[in-house]
Design goal:
- The chain has helices at 165-175, 235-241, 245-251, 255-259, and strands at residues 4-10, 15-20, 27-34, 37-40, 54-59, 68-75, 80-87, 94-98, 107-111, 122-129, 134-136, 145-147, 154-162, 181-185, 193-204, 211-219.
- It is mainly beta.
- The chain has 3 domains: 4-90, Sandwich (Immunoglobulin-like); 94-219, Elongation Factor Tu (Ef-tu), domain 3, CATH 2.40.30; 232-265, no CATH class.
- A 7-stranded antiparallel beta sheet has the order 9-8-14-15-16-13-10, with helices on one face. Strands 4-3-6-7 form a 4-stranded antiparallel beta sheet, with no helix packed on it.
Length: 265
């Protein structure tokens, strides 16, 4: 294999992959294997297939929990073009409500900090899977006839504890958007899921000024399609925040970091 697959940076929200393809292989897909299973890495619509010498891909859905994530790029012949592995689970207590088809709509609920002053959300969870098998009683026999059906996916409630009413209101408005969301969290391998919101119930708590938001959800299958590009900031934003090139160079490692507004911590 002369193609190489690199991980240029890792954030809880996403992984940035760069495929170097000097031989001009036609790359048809990139697969991800992690604690959530094996899936195609979602890309911008029309990005693949491609024989470009350099391909940049963002993955907004990788598992934060588990031991590792393996990315594999495939050619049009189904041969492996390149692969790369990265460890996960290095930042516990991260919780994200991602929006796979609209990554800009993702929300970081918990950033991994254990500082009580910095924790603004705590989560409780309960769910059920409704059985769809039906039983038919038959006259003259004690046992019913069972028509076997697979159980439904999960449905239940995620409870979000918020610091104040303004936070509950903003989060409720966000979750009211017509989106398929994805629960991504760093503590329980395999708990991640895709879901839609079926109800929102804000209420105040005795421990004022905290409020809670009950999010009723129904699990859904992996949503098909590419994603809408992530909104980036403008040159006007850059000029208003950084007075000269030296200030920019001291805060950003490269032009991609500038484009995506990722200053050095």
């Amino acid at each position: 294999m002369t193609a190489t697959l690199e991980i240029t940076f890792v954030l809880p929200e996403r992984v940035h992959l760069r495929l170097l393809n000097p031989d001009g292989y036609t790359i048809t897909r990139i697969m991800r294997a992690d604690a959530n299973g094996t899936r195609t890495v979602r890309t911008l619509t029309g990005l693949l297939p491609s024989a470009a010498a350099v391909l940049d891909v963002d993955d907004f859905e990788y598992a934060l929990a588990g031991t590792e994530v393996v990315y594999t790029a495939y050619r049009d012949t189904d041969a492996v073009a390149a692969t790369v592995t990265m460890p996960t689970g290095v930042t516990p207590h991260v919780v994200i409500l991602a929006a796979p088809l609209y990554p800009s709509d993702g929300v970081v609920l918990a950033d991994g900090s254990l500082d009580p002053a910095a924790i603004t959300f705590a989560i409780t969870w309960d769910s059920t899977r409704t059985g769809r098998t039906t039983l038919h009683d038959i006259l003259g026999r004690p046992d019913p006839i069972a028509v076997l059906r697979a159980a439904a996916l999960q449905a239940g409630t995620i409870t979000l504890i918020c610091p104040d009413y303004a936070t509950v209101k903003d989060l409720g408005a966000h979750l009211s958007n017509p989106r398929v969301f994805m629960l991504r969290q760093a503590d329980v391998p395999g708990l991640d899921m895709y879901f839609v919101v079926t109800g929102l119930n804000p209420s105040n708590l005795d421990t004022a000024p905290h409020w809670q938001l009950l999010v009723n959800f129904a699990e859904v299958a992996w949503p098909n399609g590419g994603y809408v590009p992530v909104a980036v900031w403008t040159y006007a934003d850059l000029a208003s925040s950084y007075p000269d090139y030296n200030a920019v160079a001291s805060q950003f490692v490269d032009y991609l970091a500038v484009l995506e507004h990722r200053p050095t911590p």
